[in-house]
Design brief:
Blueprint: E1 2-8, H1 14-30, E2 36-41, H2 49-58, E3 63-68, H3 75-91, E4 96-99, H4 109-119
Parallel strand pairs: 1-2, 1-3, 3-4
């Protein structure tokens, strides 16, 4: 069973965490590729990555895609996420984890931005 885990920085602002939860729900409703879609926060909010990963493994997910929802490669992307991947692999050796590049590095990003600003013009 395949899952997607959206990894976000986190915020103390409740509306921000609600927005991410809604994004995860929207992805889940539109995806035929993933049996489960979850989100987690590295800081300032819950659930934390270990909690979400444990939940997905408990649901029977044996392939988990980790999607860093970050625009730039800051400290979390460069340092924390590789450590998170390593820990997940140690904690759940029978699960296949795939850590994607951060969202901002997607080659489609310039097109998405131009499409967005053109439609709002």
């Amino acid at each position: 069973m395949k899952a997607l885990l959206l990894i976000v920085h986190g915020s103390r602002k409740a509306s921000s965490t609600t927005e991410i939860a809604q994004l995860s729900n929207n992805i889940a409703q539109q995806s035929a590729d993933f049996s489960h879609v979850r989100h987690c926060f590295l800081e300032l909010a819950d659930p934390k990555p270990a909690t979400s990963l444990h939940e997905l493994v408990a649901l029977g997910c044996d392939h988990i895609v980790l999607m860093p929802y970050f625009l730039a490669q800051g400290f979390h992307v460069a340092q924390d996420l590789p450590k998170l991947l390593n820990q997940a692999q140690q904690d759940h050796p029978s699960v296949c984890f795939k850590l994607l590049e951060h969202f901002g590095s997607a080659q489609q990003m310039p097109n998405w931005i131009l499409e967005y600003v053109t439609e709002s013009d």
